[in-house]
Structure of 2-nitropropane dioxygenase:
Amino acid sequence: MEKISTPLTEMLGMKYPMIIAPMFLVSNAEMLKAAIRSGITAAVPALNYRTDKDFREAIHEIRAEADGPMGVNLIVNKSNIRMMEQLKTCVELKVDFIITSLGSPRKVIELCKPAGIKVFCDVVDVHYAKICEDLGADAVIAVNKEAGGHAGPTPATELVPALVEACSIPVISAGGVGNGYQWKEKLELGAVGISMGSPFIATEEAGVSQDYKQACVDYGAEDIVMTTKLSGTPCTVINTPYMQDIGTQQNWLETFLNKNKKLKKFAKMLTAYKGMKMLEKAAMSATYKTVWCAGPSIEYVKSIRPIKAVVDEMVEQLTTSKVEVKE
Ligand SMILES: Cc1cc2nc3c(=O)[nH]c(=O)nc-3n(C[C@H](O)[C@H](O)[C@H](O)COP(=O)(O)O)c2cc1C
């Protein structure tokens, strides 16, 4: 199929304006290689690798086996104590782009600019987008209300045009896309491309259990709820019977600790640690404790497929505007 050219495809040197969004526990080297071979790109959270050695090996493997742009996601707030080590590895091994989330991209931009590595920053409003632009970001990623994970407060129809109007750097849209028609819609709003996560959980290459992938086929947009149980910050999960059982709100003790000035920092760290462990167990193994992070865009997932099949179908839909919706 023909190339769909936008400032994003030109900046990274790829065929179609799509990034497989970084997903904690889900993204892996197989997904990045498949994305590149399908004419798009993907970013993997550095956090998905326990050691710097594993992280380096994955970058080398992707580089050796797929010829195209690859990205890394760095959590840039204080919770990521390995941030500097991860950033230095990205610079040394010259990844193509970095997606920063949950904090200031200042340090990342400082080190990446001279190395020619592009920096895209997750933002949820104009104020923060301007800060990123002033710091020298190459693009902002507009995380909207329909996004999986930590969603923003504003729908794409408002957020993308507002950012396009306010910023002079390109805007990439993240959230709520599950077919080619919605992809096209985001481009028509002024985005130079999309960053799409949830629908790619149900792919052969994704690094999670078959049950988690199948859940993204079986459940739909109405089954997505927000929980504060995982990190303290609202996060989207599938409302499985187990989730209904434990509830989506922090209990009184967690709420009390999180409000207490002295204990707040430790309570937050503990909640985040417990949440990560819960997610990890549920994502990797068969357990009745099904805590599965996904966004409403799983509505459009009808089967578990290879990444290339998902991309090809979406490109076809984007170019012909013919889209089927899940029954
Ligand atoms: C399972 C899952 C894990 C995620 N993990 C991360 C992460 O580690 N870092 C990050 O910046 N964003 C993360 N996100 C957010 C995505 O990068 C992206 O913004 C989101 O998936 C876009 O919405 P969509 O799922 O509707 O496509 C995650 C999202 C999901 C669904």
